[in-house]
Amino acid sequence: MFSVDGRIKAIPRKPARREALLAHLAATLFEADRTYREAEVNDALRSVHEDFPALRRFLVTGGFLSRTKDGADYRRQQQPGSPGGAIPAVA
Known about the structure:
Elements: H1 15-29, E1 35-37, H2 38-46, H3 52-61, E2 65-67, E3 73-76
Helix pairs in contact: 2-3
């Protein structure tokens, strides 16, 4: 899934693998109690894959990031069903 330099080779098509990747990205790229501007989210995601808009969309639709109605601000979300809202690590 990752290349030698730590970038993502491809976004997984299988939902379980994609969800594990998104959980990993949310946990490693975004702090839980911080609001991010869209440009900051784009820069963070661009550092791991060139298709940062797809990653951003998957993070929002998957519930890993929340977005304001105007799309200007984002926050990392705790995952439901995880103990204490912990986000599982990628295997």
